[in-house]
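Example record

Each entry pairs one chain with its bound ligand, zinc ion.
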Amino acid sequence: MSKQQPNRKLLIGGYVMQGAGEAIRMERKDLIIEQNRIAAIGDDLRKRWANHDHGAGDVYHLDGKWVIPGLINAHNHAAMSLLRCFSDDKRLMEWLSQKMLPAEARMTAEDIYWGTHLAMAEMVRSGTTAFADMYIEMDHVAEAVAEAGMRASLSRGMVFLDERGDERMREALQLCERWQGACEGRITTMLAPHAPYTCPPERLREIADLARERNIPVHIHLAETEEESEKIAARYGVTPTRYLYDCGLFDDNHVLLAHAVQLSDDDISLLVGMRGGVAHNPVSNNKLGCGVAPIEALREAGITVGLGTDGAGSASSLDLFVTMQAAAWMQKVSFRDPTRLSARQVLTMATGCGADLLAIGDQTGRLKEGKAADLVILNPDAPHLLPHHDLPSLIAYAAKGSDVESVMVDGRWLMYKYQLTQVDEERIRYEANRRAQRIVADI
Ligand SMILES: [Zn+2]
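Structure tokens for the complex follow.
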């Protein structure tokens, strides 16, 4: 499989995931991909494939393999893959200030480029086709995304704790100007004030206004820990959610809220009707002991909830199959009720809801005619995927990232039969390892 691929592809005889929520079903269907779009999903499309005048293409026999929409990681700091399992089992603020921040201060733009490539190799291998990324040196991140062929919503994380705030704002806006819609629309951009506790009210108001004027979505951490709630209460006398609300962040802006763990009922009522929604990061929240986000209450209030991993520095893994399982288990155990957050609901969160959070739901997230051809083929033959009683349940609860055999984004294979087609994976491994050793030395 070379980087150049035919413009037309026929995928025959896979079980294709369609529908959303409890209505998700897997049916044996053929798919025709033309250019970057799903041109047709139907029964026995071979005749239609043959009767065309758009040039030749390739035929792929799926023989009962499972085809699902590409998974969408709605909150990540991809380059933190270089800090995976470098500092575990610590409190969030200690982990951040004593380990992550000193290590990140040593990262060069080149390190971030290779760290992002490492994260994308992992994400593609585990069936992720799009991700929301908040980090620094975003031109280098965008170049890596352009090369790897993934879809991404990129944002320059902005903290305003020193005198360099204006510089960060400039970089954030430059990213949006340079990269919004790049690579045939695969790259989109957001504005990312980092979190309530790192952004004063005047900055949040400025960003809320800018985002509204320029129609740029906003990506921000919210209410991740109790400590954050205490800080915001001491400074402003309100909850973190009320603080963002009072700064006008939700006024006609699309806002992607990462975490939203510490929410009161009042906080949830402030979010009702918001554009955007919440990226739930259950593995990161579990591992850092942050608590259980009120996902069921948010969903009942009509707020879109998708799934994210957060950076591999906290989550360890960027495998969204692990994330789906963690999300479901966390709700079930916290309510002592196994009917909470079903397999089909977490599958919807990891696909269509994620696309809506990234503001690309009109393009991707669901397998439908006319949508971008972003899809994942799973090999259903592993012992842990047998027998085939209920396919959506198997995919949400029993599958692993390593069951992903092939991945297509925008009509192009990024992985075909377990081989990454767009990048030199060996070089990525070498560069990431070498650089990570230097970055963490003596910290
Ligand atoms: Zn984060």
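The first helix runs from residue 46 to 50.
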